[in-house]
Amino acid sequence: MGLTADLCARIAGLGYDDMPEEARAAARRLVLDGLAVGVAGVSEEDAIPIMARCMKALGGNPVSTAIGCGFRTDPVRAAAINGAAMHVLDFEPMWSPATHALSVTLPVALALAEARGLEGREVLAALIKGIEIQGWLREASGQYTPDVLKFHPPGLVGPMGAVAVASHLLKLDPLRMANAFGIAGSRAGSLFGNVGTMTKSTHCGQAAAMGLEAALLAEAGFTGDTETFESPLGYANTFYTGTFKPAEMLFYGRTPWRVASPSYAIKMFPSQFGTHFGITAGLEMHGRVPDASAIRAVTLTGPKMPYVNRPFPETGLSGKFSLQYTMASALLDGHVGIHTFTEAALNRLAMQALLGKIVLETDNSIPARFETMHVRLRIELTDGTVLETRCDGPKGMWGQPSIADADHLVKVRDCLGTTLAAEKVEQVVGLASRADTLTAAEVGQMMALVG
After folding, report:
1. Domains, the chain
2. Dihedral of CA 5/176/158/443: which sign?
């Protein structure tokens, strides 16, 4: 068989019982994290309410919940809204190689589960399948660093992850699944120029929606390139010209399961993951600096990552992608949270004064990959004192102990609590934490709570 046919046969042949408990346990945490950041994304950013109003006006069979929006719509529009909601805060887990694998898959699984009356066991199995193919595609792509990435990764691998999710839940045979991958290949792509704008959230929302729609079309008999992972004019050769390593894809469905190894880094700050290095350094320095007015100059040294070099971000949303602003927030306030990225926080006199003292230096010897990069922070005080620190990675990243359940639950409850009363927060936590034991009715109950 060709690569596409081989992959489709493997995906179709896997069931919940074929997946190790470590993979299922990792996926349960993802359901909880995804729902939480989705709820917060709707309540804390203008992008999702605007998008939801437009989607609602278009109509749609009301069978799937739009998280936090108070209405239901068809599965494709629900996946688009919920995928954007889970991504808009940049608070969802980060993957290795870098992508956003959750917001393009979980919305598809939940939308179809509601629409087709499916139980949580199948939701979790589908979620794992969608994550696995994205992990191996990112590994096979050969594109890991900003200098070779032409597209925002979830816009490329996300539709394929969504196809894998939907194919499981729709019970597509390998041929129909291959058609779905071919259809989705023509719906891939996302531009780095939109980082820092509302549009970035739709990179994940539309990836989820387009992959789901491709699978629904294939279910109905629609056709596409059934050899898209190996054909000369297919998906892989178009987007990963000269770098694609097809042999990596042959690990799909075998050890290691990428959802468990290298797994994901749970984000504890709602911003681009590279900024977490500077944030961690800034938090360490916060207690060592007597007062912001005592700072004469700040030098932050890191790898070459041009799209997060934003000395004076224009909006709070843009601040999520500024090494300077995120580090300055940690240094000035001693914490970084959802409300760090408001216009009021950005435009404070103390913040603007501190931003004016920061120089970002690029050290080309530092790898521009989250897995191996580091940053150095040097602060010169007005009395001549020099303070220095280095961050090799935020808490919970790959190679370190994962975020403890208790710490994760603080994040989850904070996010859910932006909208839900305490009693409902605990109901969502209880249901999502045992996602794969939920009946179809309980899946509907969980979605009604976050709806």
Report:
1. 3-268+403-450 (1.10.4100.10), 275-391 (3.30.1330.120)
2. negative
Within a 10 A sphere around the Cβ of 222, how many other Cβ atoms? 16
What is the 3-state secondary structure of the chain?
CCHHHHHHHHHHHCCHHHCCHHHHHHHHHHHHHHHHHHHHHHHHCCHHHHHHHHHHHCCCCCCEEECCCCEEECHHHHHHHHHHHHHCCCCCCEECCCCCCCCCCHHHHHHHHHHHCCCHHHHHHHHHHHHHHHHHHHHHHCCCCCCCCCCCHHHHHHHHHHHHHHHHHHCCCHHHHHHHHHHHHCCCCCCHHHCCCCHHHHHHHHHHHHHHHHHHHHHCCCCCCCCCCCCCCCHHHHHCCCCCCHHHHHHCCCCCCCCCCCCEECCCCCCCCCHHHHHHHHHHHHCCCCCHHHEEEEEEEECCCHHHCCCCCCCHHHHCCCHHHHHHHHHHHCCCCHHHHCHHHHCCHHHHHHHCCEEEEECCCCCCCCCCCCEEEEEEECCCCEEEEEECCCCCCCCCCCCCHHHHHHHHHHHHCCCCCHHHHHHHHHHHCCHHHCCHHHHHHHHHHHC
Could you tell me the sign of the dihedral formed by the alpha carbons of 268, 271, 272, 277, in that order? negative
Amino acid at 307: Y
Tens of pLDDT, residue by residue, the chain (451 residues): 899 999 999 999 999 999 999 999 999 999 999 999 999 999 999 999 999 999 999 999 999 999 999 999 999 999 999 999 999 999 999 999 999 999 999 999 999 999 999 999 999 999 999 999 999 999 999 999 989 999 999 999 999 999 999 999 999 999 999 999 999 999 999 999 999 999 999 999 999 999 999 999 999 999 999 999 999 999 999 999 999 999 999 999 988 999 999 999 999 999 999 999 999 999 999 999 999 999 999 999 999 999 999 999 999 999 999 999 999 999 999 999 999 999 999 999 999 999 999 999 999 999 999 999 999 999 999 999 999 999 999 999 998 899 999 999 999 999 999 999 999 999 999 999 999 999 999 999 999 999 9
User: Distance (Å, rounded) from C-alpha 36 to C-alpha 412?
Assistant: 5
Its pTM stands at: 0.96
Compute the distance between CA of residue 65 and CA of residue 45 in angstroms, rounded to an integer: 19
Q: Which residue, among 273, 279, 260, has the nearest Cα to 99 in the 3D structure?
A: 273
CA-closest candidate to residue 195, choices 187, 204, 186: 204
